[in-house]
Design brief:
Elements: H1 11-43, H2 58-78, H3 80-86, H4 93-124, H5 133-157, E1 161-164, E2 167-170, H6 174-203, E3 208-210, E4 213-215, H7 221-232, H8 236-248, H9 250-270, H10 277-288, H11 290-305, E5 319-321, E6 336-341, H12 348-354, E7 367-372
Antiparallel strand pairs: 1-2, 3-4, 5-7, 6-7
Helix pairs in contact: 1-2, 1-10, 1-11, 2-4, 2-5, 2-11, 4-5, 4-6, 4-8, 6-9, 8-11, 9-10, 9-11
Length: 374
């Protein structure tokens, strides 16, 4: 750890830093609350309950990993409160921890987003699935990659985190910054854009996917694509997986929108262009809100990621019919038939007559049957 410190911050710089810290605080609180809820549903709620968190698909694993990395990134941003209070950044244990948390969190978010994007492409475009156990292997690869990116440089140089402007980050040279951090962020953002364009071409039937082959449509391309699409949707599990993957496209979209401004600002700084701190602060604030935005998206994808408790069945509706009439399906289920004899002396005959109910023969026999689902 080197003995470095930044020049004293002006009031304007500290004010922008407050906005960045507030954005990180909102993300940290939102993600913490969501992870607490997921933990409660997984541990406390009994097995097979409709609201219990499960890992039936890859997306559950990838989403949980994304939330954990969002939390680490947000906590790293929160540590800037110390620099706001002291009006400068200097080398210390807090500086090292902040750099470490931001490094792990930002690389983890980039890799998690990349995996979600590739899985979405696999499910929606190529109509392929793999065992959910495969997701655990992917997560292991992600964390081994993070451990290598963080562990090796710090072991060789003792510590690579020092004051960098208004916070602590990987110190120069630039090639270390790019290889240890920005390469993964830019790769994830670029991959998201490419996948979105590719999926748009597939949905628009501009290109046709048949198994592992991609071709341009012929005269019967639309019909063949539709036929293949219908055949592949025979599996109920695959339909569910595709619906979840379609909704999960929002997460890579949010990541791309939040990472592009900060990437542009930092890339300009790398090329010796003067970037006003206010622009960097705005981009960093937007990037710090990524955790909050992911949690907000969870409210949209929640019906798939965490199924709602099944609605209580409505009281069974009663259908009166003559014994000679056909028994109809009620609420899509076979009816359960009971004999129902109405006592005319108890007012049943009058009430039925008042309502216009008559049996087919017009006789006063009121021995009708009641059909309702079990």
């Amino acid at each position: 750890m080197s003995d470095l410190s930044s020049p004293p911050f002006t009031f304007g710089t500290r004010l922008w830093m407050v906005f960045m810290a507030e954005a990180a605080a909102m993300s940290a609180l939102a993600v913490s609350a969501l992870l607490t809820y997921i933990t409660y549903s997984a541990v406390t709620i009994q097995q097979n309950a409709s609201r219990r968190w499960s890992t039936d698909t890859h997306i559950h694993y990838y989403f949980l990993n994304l939330m954990i990395c969002d939390l680490l990134q947000a906590i790293g941003g929160l540590l800037s409160i110390k620099w706001i209070a002291e009006a400068c950044v200097y080398s210390s244990a807090v500086c090292t921890v902040q750099g470490l948390l931001k490094h792990v969190g930002e690389v983890g978010v980039a890799l998690s987003t990349t995996v979600i994007t590739l899985h979405t492409l696999q499910v929606l475009a190529f109509r392929q699935n793999s065992s959910p156990k495969f997701a655990r292997v992917i997560l292991a690869i992600i964390w081994v990659t993070i451990a290598l990116l963080v562990g090796i440089p710090n072991a060789v140089q003792r510590s690579i985190y020092d004051p960098a402007g208004a916070w602590c980050w990987i110190r120069e040279p630039i090639h270390e910054l790019i290889s240890l951090q920005y390469m993964w962020m830019w790769t994830a953002a670029l991959l998201n854009i490419v996948v979105y364009v590719f999926l748009a071409l597939v949905v628009g039937r501009v290109i046709i996917i048949e198994g592992h082959k991609i071709r341009l449509p012929r005269g019967d391309g639309r019909r063949q694509q539709t036929s293949t699409f219908s055949e592949n949707l025979d599996s109920e599990h695959r339909r569910d997986e595709g619906a979840i993957a379609l909704q999960m496209l929002f997460y890579p979209a949010v990541y791309t929108l939040t990472v592009l401004p900060i990437s542009a600002a930092r890339f300009s700084a790398f090329t010796d262009h003067s970037v006003p701190f206010s622009l960097t602060a705005i981009a960093e604030t937007l990037f710090a809100l990524s955790g909050l935005l992911d949690v907000a998206l969870y409210s949209l994808t929640r019906p798939k990621l965490m199924p709602q408790r099944e609605a209580r069945e409505q009281p069974p509706s009663v259908m009166l019919r003559s014994p000679s009439t056909r028994t109809y399906r009620t609420q899509g289920r076979p009816p359960y038939t009971h004999d129902l004899t109405l006592d005319a002396n108890a007012g049943g005959a009058d009430s039925l007559a008042d309502d216009g109910w008559q049996n087919p023969a017009g006789s006063p026999d009121l021995s009708w049957k009641c059909a309702y689902p079990p």
